[in-house]
Amino acid sequence: MLDFNYMISTKILFGKNKIERLGEELKPYGKRVLFVYGQGSVKKTGLYGAVTDIFAKNNMVYQELNGVQPNPRVSHVRQGIKICRDHDIECVVAVGGGSVIDCAKTIATGVYHEGDPWDMFLQGDSSIKKALPLGVILTFAGTGSEMNGNAVISNEATKEKLAIHHDALRPRFSILDPTYTFTVSKTQTAAGTVDIFSHVLEQYFSPTKEAFVQNRLAESLLKTCIVYGPVALSKPTDYEARAQLMWTSSLALNGLLGYGRISDWATHGMEHALSATYDVTHGVGLAILTPYWMEYVLTKETSDKFVEYARNVWQVTGENDLAVAKKGIQKTREFFTDLGMPKTLREVGVKENALETLAEKTVLHGDVGKFKKLSKNDALIILKNAY
Amino acid sequence: MLDFNYMISTKILFGKNKIERLGEELKPYGKRVLFVYGQGSVKKTGLYGAVTDIFAKNNMVYQELNGVQPNPRVSHVRQGIKICRDHDIECVVAVGGGSVIDCAKTIATGVYHEGDPWDMFLQGDSSIKKALPLGVILTFAGTGSEMNGNAVISNEATKEKLAIHHDALRPRFSILDPTYTFTVSKTQTAAGTVDIFSHVLEQYFSPTKEAFVQNRLAESLLKTCIVYGPVALSKPTDYEARAQLMWTSSLALNGLLGYGRISDWATHGMEHALSATYDVTHGVGLAILTPYWMEYVLTKETSDKFVEYARNVWQVTGENDLAVAKKGIQKTREFFTDLGMPKTLREVGVKENALETLAEKTVLHGDVGKFKKLSKNDALIILKNAY
User: Fold this and answer.
1) What pLDDT digit, counting tens, does each position of A201-226 carry?
2) How many domains does chain A have?
3) Which residues contact B337 (CB under 8 A, 6 or more apart)?
4) Each residue of A114-147: pLDDT tens digit?
5) Are residues B106 and B153 in the same domain?
6) Chain A nearest CA to B24, separation (Å)
7) CATH code of the domain covering residue B86
8) Pairs of CB atoms within 8 A across A/B
């Protein structure tokens, strides 16, 4: 086990009607709020009204930043920062999924950043010092952003999608009410499940050999996705399925699995290049790329890990290790397909002549992957295979 | 999944030489420290010197409370509270295992409690409001006290052993350096492993049927004990084994497994009655009682859970559910025996005519157990079986 510092400070309020606690939770942070949300579904579901009622009851003044899209744009971040500065905002409330939360996080820290917020993504995490307090009301299970200090933002001008990470970005609290995800569409539910699954895999496929408890914990979360992803798809209002996925989503990327070992993140690297260019849903991109990444990095040297994965997660049996490993990959692909995910980049509108550029973008800031380091050429082969 | 509020605020500094961070971590809390430790092994290992050097370098003034014993006494707590009040102590540093930490926690909150600290244990958790900041340097893996808000204290006068629980008792930080556990004796290492195992079981054997991810996480920790307990026994300086057990110990009782479901804790109830009376090592008491508890509560109604346990944790196969369940219990007993634990209460010096009193003490504050509620008579049968 490698050394680590554990810091999972976000308070989680999990369950039905936990929104009733919102006023109380915001009290320590001030009265002037930036209220960030997405493209209006919160108005349909009544959540908008519930939140603004609580603001009113607690004599809080709020400004709105709405219309945050999937693959949230830095232009929205700039808008939010301006509102914060103009209105002397004291805290941020994000209602939505990962895109809204990531946008809100970047605003919360961008307020303290001199110059353009995109600079933080180029300069790296050390440019981040502090952030306004952030509270989250989650409406989508997948990204894990509700319980970590990561934010991923797209720059529409440069077609880049980059991440920042800092403990200051961790929400102070997140309200996780599984009933808010009852209305998430089948496709989005499937994409969210794949996103959770992929977050776990990125940490599971690690070059750190000695990570026994972390590996077993990771397998626990993978099994939960395998059991409850299909249930949430076929019964969108199944509380237990939504609850299991929601909590698993948070545990998958809050640090628990990553502490004490190195993580990979190559597939996310390729997918970010993809969705920055094509505006593909993140989980869909991951569903396509993951099995091809697995096939490419499966070698004699790495086969142990694939065997462990196949046997423990998919209960694959058999004597021949290579066959077992391959069967595990096949099971992964089938799982994604059964969730209704596409199998190729072609199906989501990627142009074949764009693959070279996607590979270049994947390694724009250096090689990716720690389980298996990928050069531009490696990435290109995977992308071609996935085409 | 049941509703819950997640709050695991303790910062963990995990790895070799993390003690170098002690001065920095204490800075926000003040200069006047109460330094709590046990029966002198910290002097032998050099940890005492390392800690006091850091105090000196950071211009901190410290008072000592030493000699804290296993099954820590309320008399020690009283002493510590007096020191805190006399010297206007600002924060507490505990160096040791669960006993030292629990004593330190109770002192930290007892300072703010008017009247005798034992009253808090009789009045219950609502009597606790706040506590002095506590930093921990852990030297023993087992109790999980380093990452939770629980404290168990014995009253030597009344021969009672009771617990308090409050978020205010959570250490602000805990330094987990697995090398500090290299010198823990075989018996104590085994007892610590059983303690971890038992903490997981108390939460795993739950009446809450819908707790899929929690069950899988619990099994992960059980498997880690099964693999690394024996390694730590046979190779006391095996870093990985010590590291895996140390981190598993913290995860086993920090809330992660318990959030979203009801836990049992009947075996701990009986064991506390036992060790309050006989000063038996807590893990030893648990090793004896757990298999007998399992045998007693295994019925047609509860057998599903035992089958899940046997199959998932011990890879027991077979068609006959009852046979599978029984095999899981047998495996549990063998695991404890292989670790060198005794099998009967007789072996640890319990008198047969004391069993009635132990049963009475178990249910002194009401029936125990949520997976299966135990009356005094139930407890007595289990104790007799375990004799």
Assistant:
1) 999 999 999 999 999 999 999 999 99
2) 2
3) B343
4) 999 999 999 999 999 999 999 999 999 999 999 9
5) yes
6) 14
7) 3.40.50.1970
8) 109
